[in-house]
Amino acid sequence: MKTTPSFAAAHELYLHYLISERRLAENSVEAYAADINFFLSFLTAQRKKTLNGVDPATIQSFLEQCRERQRVSHRTNARRISALKSFFTFLLRENLITHNPFSTVELPRSGKSLPKALSQKEVMRLLAPPTLASPIADRDTTMLFLLYSTGLRVSELVQLPLAACNLTAGFVRVLGKGNKERLIPFGDQAKDKIDHYLKNSRPHILKGKRSNYLFITGRGSCMTRLRFWQIVRKIALAAGIDKNISPHMIRHSFATHLLSHGADLRAVQMMLGHTDIATTQIYTQVDQDRLKSIHKKFHPRG
């Protein structure tokens, strides 16, 4: 066996593996890094000096702390365990530790919550022209139009290069998770909004500056995910939509509405950038639940 690395060295080796070999997106790598660093900080507090010193009692104590002191959600707890399983599996495969202490730890089971989607009427209210027209307001509504037209992930939307949007063909080229490229079509309404934004609002926001991003701030940089979430919430409240709305909910709405109008599941999978079609299939359940609700409400013997 090779010399067991320090906590910091093991952490760095694993992140390098995620980036160079698994080619995970930056957001995914950051999530893994945070979960593993959280566990390594716990080991340091417990005065553990080596990864080979992690035993079932240590893991049990860690999981109890997560459940009780941290009060993390079921989903967060499952994600942490999954990340640590992967971390120790990597170290064992590289012959850097003697055993994988997480090999027998099971992921917590729970009923998977269905994604929440807006109704089509709510989406129309969300996409309505802003009361006060301005270049910034035009940018924000154009982002919403493109998001609903393509189902992009919020990180893909805010970091979209200017060159990725082909108005002539009506396609946007996206580099998604794992550096996988996909082409997603968008409709005429989104095309008209983007065209107007590019010709009128974007130059006004840039004020002579240059930027390679499609959607820009006054400094010419791309918007943060948090800032766009805040914008979506503000527009939703102004539209009278009293829900805890997020950009991801609009992505869910894109998929749900396509399937409810008869779109092919495989086509929706490709547009969303899902590796596994089972991930896309959950949206069919959302639509089935909606149909059941309608049946119960309106059928005389429902």
- The total strand number stands at 3
Ranges where pLDDT stays below 50 over 5 or more residues in a row are none
Quaternary structure annotation: single chain
CATH superfamily of the largest domain: Intergrase catalytic core
Strand-residue proportion = under 5%
Which structural class do the helices and strands define? mainly alpha
Overall shape: it is elongated
Approximate helicity band: 55-70%
What is the mean predicted local confidence, pLDDT? 85
The biggest sheet, with number of strands, parallel, antiparallel or mixed sense and barrel status, is: 3 strands, antiparallel
N→C terminal distance: 66 Å
CATH class of the largest domain: Mainly Alpha
Order of helices and strands: HHHHHHHEEEHHHHH
- Please tell me the CATH architecture of the largest domain by its name: Orthogonal Bundle
CATH fold descriptor of the largest domain: hpI Integrase, Chain A
Can you describe what's shown?
The chain is mainly alpha-helical. It folds into 2 domains: 7-93, Tyrosine recombinase, N-terminal domain (DNA polymerase, domain 1); 120-298, Orthogonal Bundle (hpI Integrase, Chain A), CATH 1.10.443. Helix content is 57%, strand content 4%. It is built from 12 helices and 3 strands, in the order H-H-H-H-H-H-H-E-E-E-H-H-H-H-H. The protein has helices spanning 7-20, 26-45, 56-68, 74-93, 120-126, 135-150, 154-158, 188-206, 225-238, 247-260, 265-272, 277-298; strands spanning 165-166, 171-175, 181-185. The protein has a 3-stranded antiparallel beta sheet with strand order 1-2-3, with no helix packed on it. A hairpin with a 4-residue loop joins strand 1 (165-166) and strand 2. Helix 2 crosses helix 4 (74-93), helix 6 (135-150) packs antiparallel against helix 8 (188-206) and helix 11 packs across helix 12 (277-298). The longest helix is centred in the last third of the chain and has 22 residues, at 277-298. The chain is elongated, with a radius of gyration of 23 Å. The mean pLDDT is 85.
